[in-house]
Each structure stands twice: as C-alpha cells, then as structure tokens.
C-alpha cells in the first residue's frame, strides 16, 4: 500500500491523538483558527488510530501474522514433503493457501480501491461463524485421515495423483482470477453487495470480465473446491460444493437485481453475452 503525505498550509500533520490536546489552550486570540484546523485534522485521521476500522496498527499486525503463518506453513509443507513420505503436508498446505488468500484480499483492495481498504478487507471474520466452522471442519478431516489412516486410498480407480494435480490447478487459477478481477474492477468492486449506485461505480465488461460475469465468485468457488481436492477431503469437498453453490446462487441473484437497477439494459445485454462459469448458475 503506497504511502501518502498530507500538507496543511506550511505545517506537517501531527498523527498523534494527543496533538489536539497540546494545542487546545490558545496563547493568544489568533490561535483559534489553528486549533480548529488541528481538530479537523484529528477527525480526518481518526479512522487510522488504534481500535478504529482502518487502524494502521491493526492492519500491520494482521499482515505480519499472515506473513508469519504463510512462511511457517510453507516451511512445514516443504519439510514434510522432502524429509518424509507422510501425506500430512496437506494440512500446512491449506494454511498456506488461506494465508495467501486473506493477504491478497486486503492487498488488492488497498492497491486499486484504497479509500475503502480497512481491517475488514482481510475478510478474516467474514460470514462469521460459518466461515470459521467450514475451514475448521476441513482441517479436522484432513488431519484425522492423514494422521490415523495415512495409507487410505480415497480416490477411485487410482486417480489420486490426477485429482491432486487438478486441485492445485483449481487453487492457483481460482486465486489468480479472483485477484485479477478485484484489481481490474478497482473502485467498482466491493466485498458487500451495494444497494445504492455511487459515482465511482462503472459497469466493467473488459479484461477478465469479458470471460466471467462474476470472476471473483468464480475464483473463490473453484479455489475452495480445489483446496479440498488437494487435502483429500471427501466429506468437505461435497459440503463445500453444496454450501458455496447455494451461497453464490443466492448472492448473484440479489446482486444482479441491483446491477440491472444501476445499469439497466447495459447490464441485461452483458448478462446475455457472458456467463458465470459456475455450474447451473446461468
């Protein structure tokens, strides 16, 4: 996220919350406007203070933790793969994929939709607690099967290596498509369905949006299924498929009603030309 500097007159902005207090007692009558300006600066910067939605310390802490988790999971995965024959590497793989996903959610927002970037852009607590329960179930199934039944053959007809490769491709492509979609949409992208059209909203139909009508949903749908293939989770694969399909089917229907309201026939024609590429969601 690029750094910006604000200049107010000839004085540098003081980012300390105590700045207004130190300047609150006027030495003479000419200081009133200066105090007002300091309070205005404080209100502008307030969202970035600790405990606020855009807290810089909160963002830094989450990015640091995700980076450490990603590095540790990558090292663990590599060590298990190269030093043992255990399939338990699949557990840190999921942690690696999750860490990369949540970091990229914030980074893409901060890069191209800077004004709305906040702690919530990491999506760490999105759809809580269902999201956490789903991933916890995936971890438990994968760890249980691979620790206690390491020689289990979960794939039919010896297709395990093929399904593993397919899962890796789905995770990679899904993450790429979602991140590119967020970058190309820029200020028109939002993690929440918008109910009112803003001046910054544009109908994006070029680039990856010329291939997928909802590329961010396509990306997450196949990313989620891909992680379960890599992990060898039979139960969670089908559970993820059902839950994700129902979620996106309902969300797309609701979102497109608003998009037609915003862009009218332009969106109707776009919807006719471009599909979602998610099964049974036209």
Automatic annotation (TrEMBL):
Region entry Disordered, spans: 1-32
Listed GO MF terms: protein C-terminal S-isoprenylcysteine carboxyl O-methyltransferase activity
UniProt keywords, alphabetically: Endoplasmic reticulum, Membrane, Methyltransferase, S-adenosyl-L-methionine, Transferase, Transmembrane, Transmembrane helix
E.C. designation(s): 2.1.1.100
Stored InterPro entries: ICMT_MeTrfase, PPMT_MeTrfase
Membrane topology: Multi-pass membrane protein
Transmembrane segments annotated in the record for this chain: 59-83, 89-107, 128-149, 161-183, 229-248
GO CC, any one term: endoplasmic reticulum membrane
Cellular localization per UniProt: Endoplasmic reticulum membrane; Membrane
Keyword Transmembrane on entry: yes
A Pfam short name: ICMT
Chief location category: endoplasmic reticulum
Family: Belongs to the class VI-like SAM-binding methyltransferase superfamily. Isoprenylcysteine carboxyl methyltransferase family.
Protein name: Protein-S-isoprenylcysteine O-methyltransferase
Native species: Fusarium oxysporum (Fusarium vascular wilt)
